[in-house]
Design brief:
136 residues, alpha/beta, four-stranded parallel sheet, 7 helices, 4 strands, globular
Length: 136
């Protein structure tokens, strides 16, 4: 099991944005389960809607991609970060991460799982913490 960042998934959607890493992660989903924070769903939808508005993809392409994602071995974490979670804000502050990236890092630390990400800043942090998903 591993944590799946939105940035990896979006590489599967857009022509010319896939990489060897995103392809390997996609292959891993055939035999492993990915865990995502609840935020992941909103991020995916937001990226697709922005891409539609910019005419990068059609609405039918967005719908097809959502259907594909729903068929994958992806589980959603049930715990939501609240305003009372001072540990999470400290995590974001300490690593100079956005709240979105902090959500993935907090989940990885809580579940002791590595993160698959294409985001450069998050990748730098998780590598330094030995939490980067690096499949063989």
């Amino acid at each position: 099991m591993f944590i799946l960042d939105c940035s990896v998934c979006m590489a599967w959607c857009f022509e010319g944005e896939n990489s060897q890493y995103s392809d390997v992660v996609l292959e891993c989903l055939k035999t492993q389960t990915a865990l995502v924070p609840q935020l992941w769903h909103l991020e995916i939808i937001n990226v697709l809607l922005v891409a539609e508005r910019k005419k990068r993809i059609t609405s039918s392409t967005a719908e097809e991609f959502l259907t594909i994602l729903q068929s994958m071995n992806i589980q959603t974490d049930s715990i939501v970060i609240s305003l009372a979670d001072h540990k999470s804000i400290s995590l974001a502050r300490d690593h100079q991460l956005s709240t979105y990236d902090m959500t993935y890092l907090a989940l990885a630390q809580r579940e002791q799982l590595p993160i698959a990400t294409n985001d450069n800043k998050l990748k730098q942090v998780v590598k330094s913490l030995n939490l980067f998903f690096d499949p063989p």
